Amino acid sequence: MATDFRDGKTFPRRGRDDIGGFLWLARLFDKARAAADGTIHDYIYPCPMDQGVMERWGITADQFDAAIATHTSDDAILAWLEPRVDAAHRAAANAWLRDEKSASLDRQDSEEGVVAA
After folding, report:
1. CA distance 92 to 108
2. Count of structural domains within the chain
3. CA Rg, the chain, in Å?
4. Model pTM score
5. For 78-93, what is each residue's pLDDT tens digit?
6. 48: DSSP letter
7. 113 burial class (0-12, 13-18, 19+ CB within 10 angstroms)?
8. Angular region, 44: left φ>0, alpha ψ -120 to 50, beta rest
9. Quick check: helix, strand or coil at residue 69?
């Protein structure tokens, strides 16, 4: 899980990659840790998409920042998030990403050299 994006060749994980059924969580986790470490380079955290996902989950960036301080693995951050976000809120965030933000996801993939599956 890379969190140093200063070389311009290393990127956060894709927004379409899920952890435990949560789209965007992998990317959010990578960017939040990079921001905390001062290695985020030209990425923005929390960007409008980060904020939109967290809003739909019902959590704040401050809550997420506090969580990443002690939950340092995918499994640990998922274990922290799951009891806080019910299935309906997770589905709403995923649908928002897939339906309303798919062009943004496509653009990110293109900019980061991801070949569509």
Report:
1. 21
2. 1
3. 13
4. 0.94
5. 999 999 999 999 999 9
6. H
7. exposed
8. beta
9. helix
